[in-house]
Design brief:
By secondary structure, this protein is an alpha/beta fold. The chain contains eight helices and seven strands.
C-alpha cells in the first residue's frame, strides 16, 4: 500500500462507516487526507485520532457551495488532489413505491446523486490541472438491481452508476479514472442503526450465498484496490461487493 504514500485523498462522509475506516487505512499508508462530513463533532473526533497530515471541513454534499469549498481545501492545504472518494449518503426508511413521496425522491437525489455529481464536477478540474487522478463513487447493489420498498434510494443509486460511467468515458483520455463500488448490506452504522434491521436480518443473510452480511473492512479492502494508483487500467466499472448476491 505504499502507492498511497503522500497522495492527497479527499473523502466525503468521513466521520463514520466506510469513510471513517478508509481514512484510518489511508492515513496509516502515508496519505494526506481531506475529510468532509456534515457532522462537525464526529469529523473532529476522527481527524484527531489519525496520525498523518489532515485537513477537515464540514460539508453537506447536497449543497454545491460546500462541496466546492471542500475541494478547494485540498488545493489550499496540499496543492493538488490525487484521489476522491464520494462516500457520503443516506438510506431512507422502507416504504412501498406507492407510498413514496416527491419529498422522498428529492431528498435521496439531493444527497445520494447530486452529492456525487457536485463532487465530480469540482474534483475533476483540479485533477486535470494535476495531470490526472482517480474518483471512487460509493453506490450500492441497489444501483445495479432492484430493491423492494426502496424506490427513491434505488433510483438515486442507479443514477450514481450512470454518472460514474459517463464521467469515466468522458475523461478516460485525460488520465482520470472513475469507478463505483456497489456493496450489499454491510454492517456499518447506517445499516445497524436501521430500525427494521433486526426483523429482516435473517432474511437478508439467507439471501446471500455466503449466508451473512458483509463487514465494513471487506468493502474498504475493495475500495483501496480500486483507487490504488497501480490499478491504472480500471475505469468505468460498478463493482459489486455482495457475497455473491448478484451472481444469483
Amino acid at each position: 500500500m505504499q502507492n498511497f504514500d503522500q497522495k492527497v485523498v479527499l473523502i466525503t462522509g468521513a466521520a463514520s462507516g466506510f469513510g471513517k475506516l478508509l481514512a484510518e487505512k489511508l492515513s496509516s499508508y502515508g496519505a494526506r487526507l481531506v475529510l468532509g462530513d456534515i457532522r462537525q463533532d464526529a469529523l473532529d473526533s476522527v481527524a484527531g485520532a489519525l496520525p498523518g497530515p489532515i485537513a477537515i471541513r464540514p460539508c453537506d454534499v447536497s449543497n454545491e457551495a460546500e462541496v466546492t469549498a471542500l475541494t478547494a481545501e485540498a488545493v489550499s492545504a496540499f496543492g493538488r488532489l490525487d484521489i476522491a472518494v464520494n462516500n457520503a449518503g443516506i438510506a431512507p426508511p422502507m416504504k412501498s413505491l406507492l407510498d413514496t413521496t416527491e419529498a422522498d425522491m428529492d431528498r435521496n437525489f439531493a444527497v445520494n446523486t447530486k452529492g456525487v455529481f457536485f463532487g465530480m464536477k469540482h474534483q475533476i478540474p483540479v485533477m486535470l490541472d494535476g495531470g490526472g487522478g482517480s474518483i471512487l463513487n460509493v453506490a450500492s447493489l441497489a444501483g445495479l438491481n432492484g430493491a423492494p420498498k426502496l424506490a427513491s434510494y434505488v433510483a438515486a443509486k442507479h443514477a450514481v452508476v450512470g454518472l460514474t460511467r459517463t464521467a469515466a468515458i468522458e475523461f478516460a483520455r485525460k488520465n482520470i479514472r472513475v469507478n463505483a463500488v456497489c456493496p450489499f448490506y454491510t454492517l456499518t452504522p447506517m445499516v445497524t442503526e436501521e430500525a427494521t434491521l433486526s426483523d429482516r436480518l435473517e432474511m437478508l443473510e439467507k439471501g446471500s450465498p455466503m449466508k451473512r452480511l458483509g463487514q465494513p473492512e471487506e468493502v474498504v479492502a475493495t475500495m483501496l484496490s480500486i483507487i490504488d494508483p497501480a490499478n491504472s487500467y480500471l475505469t468505468g466499472q460498478a463493482i459489486a461487493v455482495d457475497g455473491g448476491v448478484s451472481a444469483i
